[in-house]
Design brief:
Layout: H1 11-18, H2 22-29, H3 38-50, H4 64-67, E1 71-76, H5 87-102, E2 106-112, H6 113-118, E3 131-137, H7 142-149, E4 155-158, E5 167-171, H8 173-186, E6 192-197, H9 202-217, E7 227-230, H10 235-248, E8 255-258, H11 261-273, E9 283-287, E10 301-304, H12 307-324, E11 331-334, E12 337-339
Parallel strand pairs: 1-2, 1-3, 3-4, 4-5, 5-11, 6-7, 6-8, 8-9, 9-10
Antiparallel strand pairs: 10-12
InterPro entries: HTH_LacI, LacI/GalR-like_sensor, Lambda_DNA-bd_dom_sf, Peripla_BP_I
Organism: Pelagicoccus enzymogenes
Keywords: DNA-binding, Repressor, Transcription, Transcription regulation
Length: 353
């Protein structure tokens, strides 16, 4: 015997089931989100997908499985790409991913700042409907940020800030600078060097300012040849910065602070070639909390917030924004901690005061 064809649910039945007006159901099924909470919008479309509701002229996700693939997109700052993604942002992505899994969301790579800007397609074409929120990893150009904000999704800026424009999550750079300088000062060091770089220079400037403030508090300052800032912030730039200091200063500063662990590794390579002992003749520390600090010897003394915690916090902000539709913006600055490792030690006896 032929089974009777299952009757599909009507808009009125969806409205009754969800507890909203039929007009609201119609708007949601047509893809309109203005004036509808995220929770109600999702509930309407999920129920419609479950019941196979596909009226003529209205387009909803083709299946419940497709509907449930809600994502959070992430963008890497210039010049980063997946092939050369910063070690720091790899940790942030891990934390973001772990938090979103708890909320049945996944991350999707939308591209780098450079990729999206150079694409032949429209800017909006990079942001499919399934992308409910966006995490920008690192400082991008203001014009690019404005374009992302115009996609009308919640945006969180990680390791950068645009007050009044979007959410942000940062490490406490001022606290990190104070922790690093205090640690080295307490070991007897009075001669310091700074090795920095990168573009844009927002994070660089925050860290350098923190170091200089901590030194000034102790009646110290950076000599001009001991303050090196290059365009990049990788191992090669650390190597080149160390090479420059070695060529211009004798005796060398005994305490070197680097923008990140990768620059510190490059600087250590150059110092070792110059037969300088690390942790005895010269102590090196960095603003960093990534695995680069521990995966090679000497291990690196460092300070900063845990980047995986930063990623989880970015995820928390986005999921809260999606669930509550709150118009407010959140700026979170996470506390820094100091990890003392092999790369720092007491000032050499010959130069101790």
């Amino acid at each position: 015997m032929t089974q009777p064809k299952k009757k599909r649910i009507s808009q009125a039945q969806i409205a009754k089931e969800i507890g909203c007006s039929q007009a609201l159901v119609s708007m949601a099924l047509n893809g309109h989100t203005k004036g509808i909470s995220e929770k109600t919008y999702n509930a309407i479309r999920e129920l419609a997908a479950q019941q196979g509701y596909t009226p003529k002229g209205m387009k909803i996700e083709g299946s419940l499985g497709e509907f449930q693939q809600r994502t959070i997109g992430y963008i890497l700052r210039s010049p980063l790409k997946l092939a050369n993604k910063s070690n720091f942002f790899s940790h942030i992505h891990q934390g973001l991913h772990e938090h979103l899994l708890e909320h049945k969301l996944k991350t999707v790579y939308l591209g780098s700042e450079d990729d999206i800007n150079s694409s032949a397609g429209s800017f909006a074409s990079h942001f499919p409907e399934s992308v409910r929120g966006i995490a920008i990893m690192g400082e991008v150009r203001p014009t690019f940020l404005s374009q992302v904000l115009e996609t009308d999704r919640p945006v969180v800026y990680v390791s950068a800030r645009a007050s009044g424009q979007c959410h942000s999550v940062l490490s406490n750079e001022f606290e990190s600078g104070e922790l690093l300088v205090k640690h080295l000062y307490d070991l007897g060091h009075r001669s310091f060097a700074w090795l920095g770089g990168g573009k844009p220079k927002g994070r660089h400037d925050d860290r350098l300012t923190a170091v200089e403030a901590a030194l000034a508090k102790r009646g110290l300052s950076l000599e001009k040849p001991a303050k090196v800032t290059l365009d990049g912030a990788d191992r090669n730039e650390g190597y080149q910065a160390a090479k420059q200091i070695i060529s211009q200063m004798d005796p060398l500063p005994t305490a070197w602070i680097c923008l990140n662990a990768l620059m510190a590794r490059g600087a250590i390579n150059r110092l070792l070639q110059h037969q300088v002992e690390i942790g005895t003749t010269v102590s090196i520390a960095a603003f960093d909390m990534t695995r680069v600090c521990e995966e090679e010897h000497p291990t690196l003394t460092s300070a900063g917030a845990d980047p995986e915690v930063m990623g989880r916090e970015a995820g928390r902000i986005l999921t809260h924004s999606l669930e509550t539709k709150s118009p407010g913006l959140t700026d979170v600055t996470l506390p820094a901690v100091l990890k003392v490792r092999e790369s720092t030690g007491p000032v050499p006896t010959a130069v101790a005061r």
